[in-house]
Design a protein that fits this description.
This protein has 232 residues and is mostly beta strands. Helix content is 10%, strand content 63%. The protein contains 2 helices and 11 strands. Pfam families: DUF2490. InterPro entries: DUF2490. This is DUF2490 domain-containing protein.
Length: 232
């Protein structure tokens, strides 16, 4: 009987430890860089790097690198095709049966912008084809994403930014995740800004809270590489 009690205690203790492994109760952080750089009248290059942690400055979770070519149909409509590389540490993975993974991702995207009073709206529609290597097996997944973003200028320097993004799986369970975000933004220069925000990332069986610091740098590369007029 004593052995049975000890065994039950060990099982409960180990299950409690395992339940904490997804890191759901940790306040993590995402540190991000985004760039949109004009290279021609209707074309620009998107660059992006994200470093995600299960805790504020430790316990690495994910590295995301993404780039794409943007075609500016007009000032309020942009079409993009691009590629992303994602390396994930599965220690606190929300999917407990997975470990580390590396992903190659192709995406297609369409953005529409409009303004209502002082509110700047942005609708982003994205399709993704995901090729994931788990080490002992590979998988191909497809999903759709829709994000509505609202930006409210407060002054010439400060602004508020909010978005909600829904992820829809195109196989298996329909719901993938939902991201709700709010931030205070600061215009540093004419083509650069920084945002300090909070993200609530909800999955089917878990919710993660993440601080976010995003740096946005959008110089016009046409001006940088423009040939100087020859001197007389």
């Amino acid at each position: 009987m004593k052995k049975l009690i000890v065994l039950l205690i060990l099982l409960v203790t180990s299950s409690g430890i395992h339940a904490q492994q997804p890191g759901e109760n940790e306040m993590g952080a995402w540190y991000m860089y985004f760039g949109t750089n004009k290279i021609a009248e209707r074309f620009s290059v998107h660059t992006e790097a994200q470093f995600r942690f299960y805790e504020t400055a430790s316990n690495f979770n994910q590295l995301l690198l993404r780039t794409g070519l943007n075609y500016h149909i007009n000032p309020n409509a942009i079409a993009t095709a691009g590629y992303g590389f994602i390396s994930t540490d599965g220690t606190f993975e929300e999917f407990p049966n997975e470990t580390n993974s590396k992903e190659h991702r192709i995406f297609q995207q369409f953005i529409l912008k409009n303004k209502v009073w002082e509110f700047l709206f942005e609708h982003r529609y994205r399709l993704e084809q995901r090729f994931i290597d788990f080490g002992d097996r590979t998988d191909t997944q497809h999903r759709a994403r829709y994000r509505i973003q609202v930006t409210l200028p407060l002054t010439d320097t400060f602004f508020l930014n909010f978005y909600d993004e829904l992820f829809i799986n195109l196989q298996d369970d329909l719901f993938g995740q939902n991201r709700l975000y709010g931030a205070l933004g600061i215009h540093v220069t004419e083509n650069s800004s920084v945002q300090f925000g909070y993200l609530r990332n909800q999955f089917t069986n878990a919710v993660f809270d993440r601080w976010q610091i995003g740096i946005f740098f959008n110089p016009d590369l046409r001006k940088v590489f423009k040939k100087k007029e020859p001197l007389d």
